[in-house]
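Hi support team,

I submitted a single chain yesterday and got back a structure, but I'm not sure I'm reading the token output correctly. Could someone confirm the output below corresponds to the sequence I sent? I've pasted both exactly as they appear in my results page.

Thanks,
R.
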Amino acid sequence: MRTTPISYKRHRFPPELIAHSVWLYVRFNLSLREVEEMLLERGVNVSYETIRRWMAKFGPWIARNLRRRQARPGDIWHLDEVVVTISGRKFWLWRAVDQDGVVLEEILQTRRDKRAVRRLIKALIKRYGLPVRRPKSLLDPGTPPLCTRHPLSQIGSFRRIENRRGRLMLQHPLFCRSAEIT
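Hi R., thanks for writing in. Yes, this is the structure output for that exact sequence:
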């Protein structure tokens, strides 16, 4: 699927400068005024309102290109639950992380809600596909069987089990192995 190239016609500044300022805003989560100051340090006088207009016009294209260039997540995912205190109130932070430590998704809740976590897992599987673990050698008897992709309508029947050490685990019929809840 090919996308149409971005047209920078009828703009006063060169396309490289526009793309760079939008990239700074999207990639590093800077404010519009911070991007304006960074460009001013390089000798380019651009108002933050102009950067906002560029962001509205070119931001979705550049963000889509950045997402497309991102590496695929690893084949092992961990679901992490942490209780955090913010301004004296308790919150539950759920994070889905792959084996390289890249945060795939996170949600912050005022109360512990398992249905929201299941929706999070469904959204991750819909976005990235099932994390299929590929064995190093198919002839090795110690490798787990390959998982097959199933339609998303079958997702949602998690079972709670405990392993030998008494830790709580989630087991799903689509996954070949259990996922530990830490």
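A quick pointer for reading it: The CA atoms of residues 15 and 77 lie 39 Å apart. Let us know if anything else looks off.

Best,
Support desk
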